[in-house]
Structures are given as C-alpha cells and as structure tokens.
Design goal:
about 100 residues, 3 helices, globular, DUF4156 domain-containing protein
Length: about 100
Amino acid sequence: MGIARQLTALIAATGLLAGCAASVSPEAARIVEAHPSEVKGCEPLGSVYGSSSGFHWSEGEAMAAARNRALESAAKRDATHVVWQHDEGSITPEVSGTAYRCAR
C-alpha cells in the first residue's frame, strides 16, 4: 500500500474514533445539564455514572465520552435534566450525577 493510501486510511480511522466519542443518541442530546436550582420540583430518577476507557486524543475528549455515557443512562430513564455531582478529569475520567424528569 502506498504512503498516500496509508495516510488516507489513518485519517479516516481517526475521524471514526473522534466521532464515536462525540456522538450521543437524539434522546441523550435533549437532556439539559442543569444547576441544582433548575430542578427544584422535578422528579429525581436516581444516580447516573459514566466513565471513559480506550483511546482518546485528549483529556477533554475522554471527559466528553464519560459524560455521554452518563447522559445515555439518563436517557434510558426518560430524564429531562442531569445535575453533575462529580467529575474527575484524567486519562480515564469518571462522572456522576443525578437524573431528573421535569415537566416539559
């Protein structure tokens, strides 16, 4: 395989990896990341947790992947909001929060 083809394959693979960390389902994308004062009167649905493992280009990308996992968990509970309680940035970040369902 020529150098140009190898470079093209590498760029394509890089794009696929980056897209995986950034994408969430439409349901998770609708969840509002809120401050505690914004969820007064909403129904608490329980804790959500997300972590990131595997290869990521940056700590920020790894953190986004962890948050996306937690948002997907909240979406499965039909949450409308998440209040983050903990985030630990590192090469393998972890986040936790509480999911809420608020009147739409």
